[in-house]
Structures are given as C-alpha cells and as structure tokens.
Known about the structure:
With about 240 residues, the protein is an alpha+beta fold. About 25% of the residues lie in helices and about 30% in strands. The relative contact order is 0.13.
Amino acid sequence: MPGHRINALGQPVGLPVVGKFPRPAPPRAPMQGRFCCVVPLDVNAHAPGLFRAFAADTDGRNWTYLPYGPFDSLAEFAAWLAQTCTSDDPLFHTVLDRGGQPVGMASYLRIDRNAGAIEVGHIHFSPLMQRTPVATETMFLMMCRVFDELSYRRYEWKCDALNAPSRQAAERLGFVFEGEFRQATHYKGRNRDTAWFSIVDTDWPRIRQAFETWLSPENFDATGQQRNPLMARSES
C-alpha cells in the first residue's frame, strides 16, 4: 500500500503531516489574473451584471444541475444573492472579465480548517466565459489560493453524477475521480447521486505547472485561440 509507514507494532499507518492547524480561513481578497479577476461577491455591485450575463443562457441549461434558479427578475435574483451568498461558508466570488464586467460566480464551501480541506462549488459560468481562458484561469486562481496561499491539503469538487459537462471539466482541470455517493441528496424534486473528485497537495506542483504552461501568452495565437490543450490530468 503506497503512502504509508509501519509503526512499532508492524501496522501500516499514514505518513506524518506537517504544518500548523487549523489552516487559515480564505480571505475576502481579490485574486488577480491575466484574463480575469476573482473578487468577493458584492450584491449591489455585481447583481445586475451577473443577471445580464446569466440571461445569455437563453434556454436555462446552466441552471439544471444547480439547486436554485433560474430567476425571472433582477429583483428576485438580487434577493437570493443577499440571502444566500454573503456568508463566510459558502464564500461566494464573482468573476470579472478584463473589462471589469461580471461574467460568472463560484464559491469556497465546506471549509474544514482543522483538516485542511475545502470544496469549490456553486460554479456558474455564463456563456460569456464558457470555453474561454477566463474560465480556466478562474479555477487556477482559486486553486492557487487554496494550496499556495493557505496551504490546504485537499481541494474537492462534487457534482450531480449525471452532470457530464461538470465531470469532464473536473478531469480536465486535474481532479481525480474518487467515486459516487448514491442518493446523497435531492433537489428540484429529484434524486442526486453525487460524484466526488479531488486534488491533494502532492498533486498540486504538477497541476500548477500544467496551468502555467497553458495560460502563458505563447500558448495563444493572434486570435486568442489556444495552441495546445491543458494537460493537468495525471496519466497514472
């Protein structure tokens, strides 16, 4: 069994864990990238722009696997943001494009400082950022905060097991599939089996290098198209 040692009784036990616990809480501070900036969600400042960005999803398919929405009016959406998205856990962030316009949101949640584990969730990327460097860089910036700034040991991604695009995104970003929890919850009147994925701190150096290579200016042509795909997934 890899990743263990043998104690004085001849039993396998886990490797030593270094560092101080609890780990720090994620700060309410911007994460600045080349393509975007990820900032703590501000209802008054961001609600109108987010509502417009999400409205570009004309058939509402981005809401299917979220336990809330869609919202029929800006007032209804802003009220939901104010009620749901202003706590420290989940800690919601807004994604701003290079022009400072809100184009999506994501959060840290289930923050376990004693274990050094944290989840990324409530990911809602509008059509304005889907399949663009903004989406990939957003995830990279959030990972950098977790591993480089806060020294967490584990970063989790969970989704409806039937959400194929989310599963594919997790694997593209370097997350490792860990299994499915059957009948983990229910929402919108239907069952949800939950697929679990993770990145751990020993994965991170390789994954960070893959992101940095992909995000480098040399990887994009004059029209902004990638030259080579992101290679964050482990081959092992």
